[in-house]
């Protein structure tokens, strides 16, 4: 039997949906953009009212995680790069993922370790290479959750859990994000087999059905690669061109090159490189970029940097920032630690000052080579300065 007011609520939602479809054809003027936003907001509110009238607003339960195994799972993630994951490690990964999500979803579809091959190429130790790893887990939710009348925004907010190093996404939303060209989800769909810590039959079937060139050729993905790459580490100069942001970190710069490489690989009919860089497959400009990144890593490392104010250079040779080695001078341990930290800070200031004109020739070569001034639309095909 139909509840009182249910037909009126349904009719109101349907009328607003028709108006929303009509508004999509409007030109993108300032007035029309404001109108579209108000229509979307009104439609969401009407859907919530309809769910309240029907008594179905409580049927959607947001995805959640059991936090108990997360610490061990993060430690395991930071111990491995895709090429070092053994069958034993995969079993451990799945056991911890199952403890965190097994009773909170219908099925675990896949688990993928995402890393930045450009950042890994600048590091020597495996622990450093895995420093910015991310674990992305795709799950299948209960059918009642999928068919819940809750609006799409509520479902999206409740179907994704993002902890930075761990991201859990419901399969339906994974497909939506993939079509939207979101880079992390495209990398997950076409990841190297070594990066898979768990793979179900459904995941294998999905990968078999996907075409690499079709997905990477989507306009949103191409725009995301070039836009995110430049927007995250560079800013426009007042007189034109681009310059490196002073706040840009080595990991962010490596991510920018990884995204640009994705766009280049599409034009060469290659899948995205998600694990291990092969110099033979990189164009000349990309090889130059890799050398600059390695030079940048060495410049950021305050090891073996002497201080001109110290009479004993040996006292400033450190094994890690703020931790001095033994030396034969008369300086105390606290003085050496203080000088070592000051040396490291001085090195970082010198590196950052490169974008302000106070730079050595080495820093200038790293930060202001022609690669940084190239048009992002050329991706790795042109090394000229616009």
Description:
With 386 residues, the chain is of the alpha+beta class. It has 3 domains: 49 residues; 144 residues, Beta Polymerase, domain 2, CATH 3.30.460; 104 residues, no CATH class. Helix 3 runs antiparallel to helix 4, helix 13 packs antiparallel against helix 14 and helix 14 packs antiparallel against helix 15. It is globular, with a radius of gyration of 26 Å. The N and C termini lie far apart (70 Å).
Task: Please state the average pLDDT score.
Answer: 74
Give the overall silhouette. Answer: globular
CATH architectural designation of the largest domain: 2-Layer Sandwich
State the end-to-end distance: 70 Å
- By oligomeric state, this entry counts as single chain
Task: Give unreliable regions as ranges.
Answer: 301-386
Report the strand count. 9
Give the CATH level 1 class of the largest domain.
Alpha Beta
What's the story with the biggest beta sheet? Answer: 5 strands, mixed
What is the chain-wise order of helices and strands?
Answer: HHHHEHHEHHEEHHEHHHEEHHEEHHH
Strand content: 5-15%
Radius of gyration computed on alpha carbons: 26 Å
Judged by helices, strands and strand pairing, the structural class is alpha+beta
Biggest β-sheet: strands ordered side by side in the sheet: 3-4-2-1-5
CATH fold-level topology of the largest domain:
Beta Polymerase, domain 2
Please bin the fraction of helical residues.
Answer: 40-55%
Number of domains: 3
Number of helices: 18
